Amino acid sequence: MADPGLRVVERDGSARDYAIKDFLARNQVPFETRTDPGLTSVAVELPDGSVLAEPSLIELATALGLTDEAGSSHYDLVVVGGGPSGLAAAVYAACEGLRVVIVEDDAPGGQAGSTSRIENYLGFPAGLSGGDLAQRALAQARRFGVQWMSARRATALRRDRRAWVVDNDDGSSVRGAAVLVATGMRWRELDVPGAAELRDAGVFYGASTPVAVRTAGDRVFVLGAGNSAGQAALYLAEHGRRVTLLVRGPSLAGSPMSRYLVDRIEASELVDVRPHAEVVSVGGTDRLSEIVLRDNDSDTVSTVPATSLYVLIGMTPCTDWLGGQATTDTRGFLVTGTDLLRIDGAWRLDRDPLLTETTLPGVFAAGDVRSGTVKRIGSAIGQGAVASQAIMEYLKDVAVQRIPEQARVSSFDLLDGDRDGVLGAADLTAFGRRLVAAFDESPDTERARRVHEACGEFWAVLSRFSDKDSPDGEGVGREAFVGALDELAALNAFAPLADAVLLLSDTDSDGSLTLGEFQRLLGALGAPTDAAATTFGELDHEHSGYLDTTRLAAAGVLLGRD
């Protein structure tokens, strides 16, 4: 076997040791382990020979290149949760040109990513692991430019002027015009004496990674009667562990477990089903050593030795980080779309909520966290696709509404530096140089490079509207530009250029332009500034006193008046 080059040096198999190994396994990072009783804390030896002493997950993810840093001050879409629905929405949105970032606290795939075997997903007759499916989806998303911020847990959602801001537990935050909540569900914790103290030290939630097998020991119990519990029991058994499946009912026959799993468990020589079983408590000094069980049929109590207990007894939606801002049903799942109209006071805008939109305009939900959904991978992926369409409709309405006619013409004039009435690639190149020089920016800086790249990206889209009657048949005339502006905005064509402009002109680095900064921007370009306040007001529909990337992009980036 090839040397993986990464080693986790354990002290005593503590909960911290397990968390690091589990994170690596879920992200499909190969590693070896060794024990050093002399250590005071876990350490990770990297392939380059450096050592991380008791690293946080974000430190580990950064060192291994598993996470991206925010590459934009303002995204079109912030997806919170990298499960099937979040990844699907990100792929579809990015395909349409949106700037997308995913914030994920663990590994791609969410709960589905930790599933040992998926056998009922269309197109994979032999089945595949949840981790494999998730890694393929992440690779696809990244190919379309989606940024992946992993090992970060979203802690709050707030409105800042005209943007939604997601705050994370590492102190970072990301801003976006729209947010998709795809946080899914978490395992319901076992509420018995000893369970909290022994979490990840014998009491585990989920059991579908190689780490689960290596830490299982020889007295293995799985608690639950759903598909996840059945898959976990079979997974552990396939790796040579004898497993006792604890179920509250008289058998698996009337449980929610799929029939094909029941049949396999009944046929397995390594899985024993213990009916009428309820966990009363768990015990152990540093690690789990025993489980106290009650037989709910005979009302007798017994204590059994145990090395591991995998708890899969149902799930609860991950919505607490929203702080009660969004309407939920009685079980905590997010209510969306027209279902909000059935709840008094849940929706307050004149328009109807879009499909999958929550109480918060511009904040959408998809996947298991959404009320009334089928909790299946295929359903989650479909919901992500549907949500992406609703989000694009929302962004189009925000971006295209009431662009002033004079602003359309003035935008063309600002880009047409040689005043020949036709825009071409040379005009965009010259515009970039003029913009950089106007702000006294050196042409070889990162900001200057961003401006020139953005001009090239903008021309790549604008050239689709080339006027055949132009001198070389490749330019875009004034009339064609003005007529195409709505479609250009809907395509989000101006977004890269707006980002670059904002980078240069946002003197206080708050991610938006004040009227003063807007006036300076126009003046730097030699555009008329006498009506800047009027133009600013026409763009600032909500009278917030600020223009963000969305508004700049919507108006054709730079606005002036003749």
Automatic annotation (TrEMBL):
Any one GO MF annotation of this record: thioredoxin-disulfide reductase (NADPH) activity
Gene3D superfamilies assigned to the protein according to its UniProt record, in alphabetical order: EF-hand, FAD/NAD(P)-binding domain
Record's keyword annotation contains Transit peptide: yes
Keywords: Flavoprotein, Oxidoreductase, Transit peptide
Enzyme kind, highest EC tier: oxidoreductase
EF-hand domain segment(s): 493-528
Pfam families linked to this entry: Pyr_redox_2
Reactions it catalyzes: [thioredoxin]-dithiol + NADP(+) = [thioredoxin]-disulfide + NADPH + H(+)
UniProt-listed SUPFAM superfamilies: EF-hand, FAD/NAD(P)-binding domain
EC number: 1.8.1.9
PANTHER family: THIOREDOXIN REDUCTASE 1-RELATED-RELATED (PTHR48105)
Name of the molecule in the record: Thioredoxin reductase (NADPH)
Source species taxonomy: Bacteria, Bacillati, Actinomycetota, Actinomycetes, Pseudonocardiales
